[in-house]
Design goal:
It contains eight helices and six strands, in the order ααββααααββαββα. By secondary structure, it is mainly α. The chain has a two-stranded antiparallel sheet with strand order 1-2. Strands 3-4 form a two-stranded antiparallel ribbon. Helix 2 crosses helix 7 and helix 4 packs across helix 5. The chain starts with 25 loop residues before the first helix and ends with a helix.
């Protein structure tokens, strides 16, 4: 059963020792590092998108994208769209609620296909046909609804219809399109915590990173080991 909890979105799951409520790691979810390669930002955004469904390994995963408005808020946090663009998209969603709900459904389907791709990479297995078909279709639409513009001496893709309700899905699609042909794809890893389910890029030389966030899932594991010995 997927939990739709607007007030306590989960990432690194139920925190140990005296905390009765799940905790949403807002700092990690909204972090886009400065002065890093563009492909690193793409990876962070795509994985943040996948991680909007938390606690995947448990019987009660927690859904952050409970509405189209929630999708817009996430996109603003990731700087995929501006606050002004977000306001326009929310207003458009108010005018066309059924269309907005359909877009949200497609966004979630895309997210789950990306999760399937990450799982395949992490286990060394080829991704399924349905996974590739869904991702391919989303990427095709993302680039079909984009245009090239000059940007700081280079070129970049931008949405050709900035107020289209599908825009956020297209923005994620173009980031995913760059990620799937990047060396970072091979470094996708799942958090080792059995109640987390978050994905991250393992940048360590020997690919030894285990936790999405050492301060949360890593520390919980340490405390569990300590308690088991005591």
């Amino acid at each position: 059963m997927v939990t739709h909890d607007r007030s306590e979105w989960v990432t690194c799951q139920i925190i140990f020792g005296g905390y009765s409520e799940p905790v949403y790691n807002q700092a990690m979810a909204t972090q886009v590092r400065q002065a890093v390669p563009a492909e690193a930002v793409d990876a962070e955004r795509v994985l943040s998108f996948i991680n909007t469904l938390s606690a995947r390994p448990t019987d009660t995963p927690v859904e952050r994208l409970v509405s189209y408005d929630a999708l817009v808020k996430w996109a603003e946090e990731q700087r995929l769209i501006s606050a002004a663009a977000g306001e326009r998209l929310v207003a458009e969603a108010r005018k066309h609620p059924q269309q907005a709900a359909a877009v949200l459904g497609r966004a979630k389907a895309f997210r789950e296909a990306l999760n399937g791709l990450a799982a395949a990479v992490d286990t060394g297995k080829p991704p399924g046909t349905d996974v590739l078909r869904t991702i391919g279709a989303c990427l095709s639409l993302a680039y079909a609804n984009a245009r090239l513009v000059p940007h700081e001496g280079t070129l970049q893709w931008v949405a050709s219809a900035e107020d289209d309700l599908e825009r956020i899905v297209w923005e994620v699609g173009r980031a995913a399109g760059r990620l799937v042909i990047s060396p970072r794809l091979a470094r996708l890893r799942a958090c080792a915590a059995d109640d987390c389910g978050w994905w991250f890029v393992d940048e360590t030389k020997n690919r030894s990173r285990r936790w999405c966030d050492m301060k949360l899932c890593g520390n919980r594991a340490k405390i569990r080991r300590f308690r088991a010995k005591s």
